[in-house]
Structures are given as structure tokens and as C-alpha cells.
Write a structure and sequence with these properties.
Distance between the termini: 53 Å
Number of domains: 3
CATH architecture of the largest domain: 3-Layer(aba) Sandwich
Number of helices: 9
Radius of gyration: 23 Å
CATH topology of the largest domain: Rossmann fold
Mean pLDDT: 85
Number of strands: 22
Shape: globular
Largest sheet: 8 strands, antiparallel
Length: 428
């Protein structure tokens, strides 16, 4: 079997109806992940409903309800390959709930494709998603200027230049530079794999631009941080925590401390063996989803949301922390005292807003207001947060994987953010 190609997580972002799902369908079709005849079937169904341009999107939106509404609700994960990489593609809904999916689970996106319809240009969620991608540490971005077939006259180069200039202004203001801007028609297929009607374009196709992305280095040289997903007690083996190594390297005989755990000082155990996909492995590296048999720790000592590190460099347990957040969707306003649930790595902890420090302009990063009275949907801010029980969180600059979080309340994602500074708990 040939060695696996390098892997990248790719998230599709952009305003609702700008063609993200259609583009995903097109990429899967053009890279041979789905057969032409399936698309044909979808096309017939779609045109019977008078929605022929939705056919490709239906590849991703298999839920009947989504079909009727023509919107992406859930986040779908699909694989496609270029000659250089294999991608896991995360098709994010154009509105609010994609954040949690971008932050939690394996969807630490390595790169994003920002889809902007040439017919409409920069819209509210184009700005919001771009800012969010930046805040959440997605450093590689490709802009796909879509629906070039629908501008007047079709495939007009001037229209591309005009939309490109607007998007560029937005992205430069939030700190992105050297971004490729690629004109495409996801529905017709122009310039995704082949130039098609975009004969004037002398830059790369979208697939060529995807091949130019870089695999981020594995943070093997950082201290070990291993958030725990589940803990099993296996007869004849012992205690086996399971989770994905985010940073550092774990080997048999390592002494680990689990924090915050059920003990005030954390619990310490020794790694006896490590397994991945039911096979023993000599060491676990970032990105590896592993189970490890830990000596000296019982199942009741540790739980989901704990983080393991080496004893000489333990994970940070926060007494309080300062964070930069964006309010994505709150029905009223957020004031001091508000206590929603923070989802950070595998932990879910109710946290209290202790101080609203500054309101920030999400498009420029400038301070708009000191000590605001409240925050509402669309606001970006610097805030002080106090967890209601001990939780591990790290500064996003040092450990981005453990420094980002989603804020959830009332069954939806209210906001998202990154940890800027920490007042660490003293271990008595």
C-alpha cells in the first residue's frame, strides 16, 4: 500500500448562498470522489423542483430538510484527494453554528476557502467568517470568487477585479496577506479543475491553489498536552484514557499528570503502553488519537475534559482568564454575571463573565469602547472570564489547540474566542 499523502483539514466559509456547498460538490466530482451518474440523478431531482443549480450542493446536503430549504445545517465531513494531498473538507454552514464545529473535534482547520459570490461581493457573514477564521488561528486562506458565470457580461474580468479589491481591503485590515484570489464558477466548473470559460485568467485553478497550501508543522517540540475524551477501565489491562495528542510527544514510561482531575493537585501516573487503531505504537505525536494504559491511576480519578502533560511541565489550570471573543448569536445582550458553557478542547465548563474590558472593531482590531456595559451579536471584545470549576486552558499564542473555545448556551453557539492571558490556580 502506498504511503498516505499528507493530510490537511479544509474549511469552507463565507456568506449564506454564496455557493460553498456547490463548490464542495464540484471538488468531489472533479477529483473523482463521486460519480457523474449520481450528479445526473440529483440534477433531475433538482430541476423537477425548479432548483437546478442546487444539484451539486445536494451531494453534501443529504438531509431532506436541508434540500427543501436549500441551506446547509449540519457540518459534513468529506474526503477528496489532489495529486499532492488528501483533504478532509469541512462544509461549514454560512451562518452561526459552524463555529463550534470548527473549534471542537478534529476540525482544527489547517486552511480555509472563503467563498465570495461575484454577484454580491462582500456581505455581513463574509466579514464575520473572515474575522473568525483569523481569531481562531486559521492562517492559510484562499479566496474563491464564485458565480463568475452569473455576472453581466458572464465571466467579466472587470467584475472579478472589483470584487477582489473589496475582499482584499477586508482581509488586509484583519491581518491576512499574500492571499490567492481565484475566479471560479462552482456550478459550471470553470477554473476549479480546468480553465473552462475563464480564458483570460492566467493564474492557478482552484485545485492548483489547494496544492500550494502547506502542511503546518506538527508541534512535537512543545510540551505534551493530551486532552482526554474518555476513560476506560479494561480488565487485565487497567485504566485507559483515550484522546487526541494536541502537542508534544508521549512515550511509554513517561510520568504524566492529569489536571484538573478529581484531586486538588491532579493525579500522577506512568504510561505503560500506547495504542492507536488497536495496535501498539512506540510513541504518540500531535494529531494521533490514542489510548494509553496508565499505571497508578484509577478510572474514577480522571474524566473527560482533563488534560495530561508531563510532570515537569503540567497543563495550566485557570483560576480566571482574559479572552478575546466574538459574539455570534445572542438573543439579547451579554452583561457581567452571564454564565454560559465554554467548550474548550474536550472540556465543557460553565464560566462567568467577570468583566467586559474593551469592545473591539472586528474589522480593524481597534478599541471602540472601554468597559462597555453590555455586548450583543456582532460585537468583538476583550473580557475576563472565571470558570465555575477548575479547567485547563492555555494561552492561544503558546498552545493554539488548547487556547480556543466556543461559547454555548440555549442549544446554540453564542460566541467563540481565544485565551489571551491566564491567572493560574495555585496548586496547594
Amino acid at each position: 500500500m502506498p504511503a498516505e499523502k499528507p493530510h490537511l483539514n479544509l474549511v469552507m466559509i463565507g456568506h449564506v448562498d454564496h455557493g460553498k456547498s456547490t463548490l464542495v460538490g464540484r471538488l468531489l466530482l472533479d477529483t473523482g470522489q463521486i460519480e457523474e451518474h449520481i450528479i445526473k440523478k440529483y440534477e433531475e431531482e433538482a430541476s423537477a423542483k425548479g432548483k437546478e443549480s442546487f444539484a451539486l450542493a445536494w451531494v453534501m446536503d443529504r438531509l431532506k430538510e436541508e434540500r427543501e430549504r436549500g441551506l446547509t445545517i449540519d457540518v459534513a465531513h468529506r474526503r477528496f484527494d489532489t495529486d499532492k494531498y488528501y483533504f478532509t473538507i469541512i462544509d461549514a454552514p454560512g451562518h452561526r453554528d459552524f463555529v463550534k464545529n470548527m473549534i471542537t473535534g478534529t476540525s482544527q482547520a489547517d486552511a480555509a476557502v472563503l467563498v465570495v459570490a461575484a454577484t454580491e461581493g462582500v456581505m455581513a457573514q463574509t466579514k464575520e467568517h473572515a474575522w473568525l477564521a483569523r481569531t481562531l488561528g486559521v492562517n492559510q486562506l484562499i479566496v474563491a470568487i464564485n458565480k463568475m458565470d452569473a455576472v453581466q457580461p458572464p465571466y467579466d474580468a472587470r467584475k472579478y477585479e472589483e470584487v477582489k479589491a473589496d475582499v482584499e481591503k477586508l482581509l488586509t485590515s484583519i491581518g491576512y496577506k499574500d492571499i490567492p484570489y481565484i475566479p471560479i464558477s462552482a456550478w459550471k466548473g470553470d477554473n476549479v479543475k480546468d480553465k473552462g470559460q475563464l480564458t483570460w485568467w492566467d493564474g492557478p485553478t482552484l485545485l492548483e491553489a489547494l496544492n500550494e497550501l502547506k502542511v503546518p508543522p506538527k508541534p512535537v517540540d512543545k510540551p505534551l498536552r493530551w486532552p482526554i475524551q474518555d476513560v476506560y477501565s479494561i480488565t487485565g489491562v487497567g485504566t485507559v484514557p483515550v484522546g487526541r495528542v494536541e502537542t508534544g510527544v508521549m512515550k511509554p514510561n513517561d510520568k504524566l499528570i492529569f489536571l484538573p482531575s478529581t484531586q486538588p493537585k491532579g493525579v500522577i501516573g506512568e504510561v505503560k503502553s500506547i495504542e492507536m487503531h488497536h495496535e501498539q505504537i512506540p510513541q504518540a505525536e500531535p494529531g494521533d488519537n490514542v489510548g494509553a494504559n496508565i499505571r497508578g491511576v484509577s478510572k474514577k480519578d480522571i474524566r473527560r475534559g482533563d488534560v495530561a502533560g508531563h510532570v515537569d511541565n503540567p497543563p495550566t489550570v485557570a483560576k480566571s482568564f482574559t479572552a478575546q471573543i466574538m459574539v455570534l448569536n445572542h438573543p439579547s445582550v451579554i452583561t457581567v454575571g452571564y454564565t454560559p458553557v465554554f467548550h474548550c478542547h474536550t472540556a465543557q465548563v460553565a464560566c462567568r463573565f467577570e468583566a467586559l474590558l474593551k469592545k473591539i472593531d472586528p474589522r480593524t482590531g481597534e478599541v471602540k469602547e472601554e468597559n462597555p456595559q453590555f455586548l450583543k451579536t456582532g460585537d468583538a471584545a476583550l473580557v475576563k472570564i472565571r470558570p465555575t470549576r477548575p479547567m485547563v486552558i492555555e494561552k492561544a499564542k503558546e498552545f493554539p489547540e488548547l487556547g480556543r473555545f466556543a461559547i454555548r448556551d440555549m442549544g446554540q453557539t453564542v460566541g467563540a474566542g481565544v485565551c489571551v492571558d491566564i491567572e493560574a490556580r495555585e496548586i496547594k
